[in-house]
Amino acid sequence: MSATITIEDAPGTWVVRAGGAVIGESSKALILRENGYPDVVYFPRSDIATAFLDPSDTVTSCPHKGQATYYSIQTKSVTLKDAGWSYEDPKDAVAAIAGHLAFENEGVTIEKI
């Protein structure tokens, strides 16, 4: 079965918080929808406080999106390992997410404000 992936502009303004701190806010976020998976909000890298991000050694590969690189988020009290990721050179079908970061972890909150 092949994946059905759609990418569209995320309406409104979106925020990502880690450890209580806002690390990004964007009105230019994207929503990636993939069959069988929860929707994922991708933030333009320019809208993220990248000083909170530490590159990780983790790399994964998706047959539909390409190779993902991961980032840990350093909060005041804890490091959230591999809490963010990006596809630096995504496959053509999902090229819109190039230059964007997505987040997921117990200590990360993403919401529309």
UniProtKB/TrEMBL annotation:
Give all residue intervals belonging to the DUF427 domain: 15-105
Looking at the UniProt entry, the stretches that span the membrane are: none
Q: Which organism is it from?
A: Palleronia caenipelagi
Q: Which domain of life is it from?
A: Bacteria
Protein name as catalogued: DUF427 domain-containing protein
Entry-linked InterPro entries = DUF427, DUF427_sf
PANTHER family in alphabetical order:
BLR5716 PROTEIN, DUF427 DOMAIN PROTEIN (AFU_ORTHOLOGUE AFUA_3G02220)
